[in-house]
Amino acid sequence: MSLPSDAFRHVASRPHEPLRTFHPRRAPLGRDREDALARLWPRFGFSVHDDAHGPMPRTPDGMLDVRALFGRDAPLVLEIGSGMGETTAAMAAVDRGRDYLALEAHLPGVANLLGLVEELGLTNVRVGHGDALDLVRRALPEGSLDAVHVFFPDPWPKARHHKRRLVQPAHVALLRSRLRVGGTLHCATDWVHYAEQMLEVLTADPGLANTAVGFVPRPAHRPVTKFEQRGLDLGHEVRDVVVRRVR
Ligand SMILES: C[S@@+](CC[C@H](N)C(=O)[O-])C[C@H]1O[C@@H](n2cnc3c(N)ncnc32)[C@H](O)[C@@H]1O
To answer: Is the pLDDT of residue 14 over 70?
Structure first.
């Protein structure tokens, strides 16, 4: 099995594929992350798109075999766009009863999280490299998630790029269908316009109910990441929305 250098690039650029919600980036891994990838990918990582680069375990009907992936049955938290993985690692470390599936399109982020998994001795984290929406659509069954986390998704601030935003009605309906009834979808952003859009889209979905009136106060269990700190340094205000699947 080879490592996932560009495992999803050719797939994501096919013209008939849905629009990407992420910027394809090429960034050097650096020695530590290359090392983390070489040692830890076979145990904790898998490729969303390319079976040659760490196939994901599948059930006979082609779905992601979560039980084989984690080696147990536990409530599953999906994090979309885990970035460098600081939030995933910190939340999973104090929530060992649930399993955390982090999905990230940017390989250095995947490698960084693998390093954190080792450093903190986490057994309840697995990391998928590639387009999270693609995996959710094709390989996660309805009602299989306890929670979905979408923290600081790419803001796509230009109006002509808003169609690339992760939080939009079709994606929210998809994520809601994969949550169990009672499961939560938690989104956060430091872009005012995106925050308003999140609140509007998440509360407009008939299967979701807001857990607060408007935004929720910043939950203490969500650590501040570099992305968030960069926004705060620019004077941005951070907003969290948490909705629950009700039907
Ligand atoms: C602005 S960063 C925030 C990272 C992290 N959540 C944090 O708070 O620090 C957004 C991340 O989402 C990833 N991303 C966006 N769309 C994605 C998708 N469809 N599948 C996987 N990752 C995605 C990007 O590669 C990027 O690393």
So the answer is: no
